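Question (not urgent): is this output format expected?
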Amino acid sequence: MLRLRVMARVLRVLLVVLFGLAMATLFTLYERLQVPASADRRQRWSQLFMRKLSSALPFKVRVIGQLPQQPMLWVSNHVSWTDIPLLGMLAPLSFLSKAEVRSWPVAGWLALKAGTLFIRRGGSDSQLLRQQISQHLQQACALLIFPEGTTTDGRSLRTFHGRLLASAIDCQVPLQPVALRYLRDGKADLIAPFIGDDDLLSHLMRLFAHDCGEVEIQLLTPIASAGEERAALAYKAQQAVQVALFGVQASATAPQRRARAA
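Got this back:
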């Protein structure tokens, strides 16, 4: 029975991926025919795909708080690659991802066609990235970033890096902090995190071999960015997420084992 359940869940995900590939192919056709495909259109198609993918994952999702009524720069803690569909289903969003994702089979191409912005770790293109994020925000398109820069096991929070928030200050776009929590039997879920030497397929199979977990998504009070220093803005966002997840503020983040970004 367990094997049949896993196979049925995998098949459902594969069907959703095929749907996503069809959408990406359509956008490729638009590009070749020089038909404009606005960021807004890409975001709405991406949201549809994320909804279907989220429904195929073994999670029961609870959303707390109000969706923003204007485009904002969303900032969230980062636990797993599953954060992306679970947050992407909530609103039309684009994502900022590490550059390596672009070379991933299937997933990288889907991310590219969805309008994902890619960043090199320690790269020298910070100013270019700042301009790209600013241009994106000026088009009234929401963008989500994971300012920790990597995933954690969900039981602590890493430092939020401020350099990626500079564009929000430039454009005077508020931040929408998000606190993401994975639970299983009322405790921190140790199956959902995508860390260490995990690979995508093994992680997916591990998820499908277990019963449904719970995901709690807290949409916190937006934070104004106008007139702020980026380090101060990052600290405010980090503290908001820290309090929402753990109930206490932190003067410093706890050390963690090396993790990998989704």
